[in-house]
Design goal:
The chain is mainly α and 285 residues long. It has helices spanning 2-29, 34-56, 65-91, 94-101, 104-116, 122-138, 147-173, 178-200, 206-230, 236-242, 245-257, 264-284. The longest helix has 28 residues, at 2-29. The protein is globular and about 50 Å long.
Length: 285
Amino acid sequence: MKQKENRLALASLHVAVLLFGLSGVIGRFVGVPAHDIAWGRSLCSSLLLLLLLKLLREPLKLDSRRDYVLALCGGAVLAFHWTAFFLSIKTASVAVGTVTFSSFPLFTVLLEPVVFREKPQPRQLLLAAVMAVGVVITVPDLSFRSEAARGALWGVASAASYAVLALINRSLSARYSSVKICMYQQGTAALVLTPFVLETGAVWTRTDVLGVVVIGVVCTAAAFSLFVRAQRYVRAGVAAVVSGMETVYGIVFAALFLGEYPDPGAILGAALIITAAALSSLKTR
């Protein structure tokens, strides 16, 4: 029974990560600023998840004040993560944004033993290091004057914040459904980003609205529910390494829909990430 749960968890992780990779490509079609995309994504997803909770008749109340604090803090972290991610993609490219974001396993592997008082696994440390090398190879120019370097910096900031969010979700997923966790966090993210959206006052087109709705409903509500639920059965470090596949999916979608073809460095970096993710999945199975 436990083996079956592990296999289903891994399958859920990979489906969720594929949808995450698609969100970056859609974000390139949307013309509004990065924080507007993050706000619309959070709003659409949180409303859909709230409706789902009502249909399931699942109570919205959490068990303790500590859990409320964790959920709300997770929402604030999520707001920064998504804004930084879309800034990375818009500043550089989908390849640079997704590859640099994939460095978050390195932060997760370092933080997880400290937060949960677990012994670090040398295998996961090695796989995370391999993925970090893939990130460095992807950026052709490390000068901060280049758009690629600035985009990479936003991608690393997105990665660090996502590692924190993964650890928060591991703590909450032991007691609450993935739908409830995501609803609280994404609703909080929408509230946090609202003042920035009002200050910008960007004009939205039909394409912008449609793109953000797809990102919010398909690439967020569905994907994050699958991802958080899988963390009940998979260590955060393993989930982090499997999430490196987002880079591969993002690059493939960018080539198909945007005509953004990766350079040799991005291909080599993606190859390292695929290898690390595959080895992690096989070990978990």
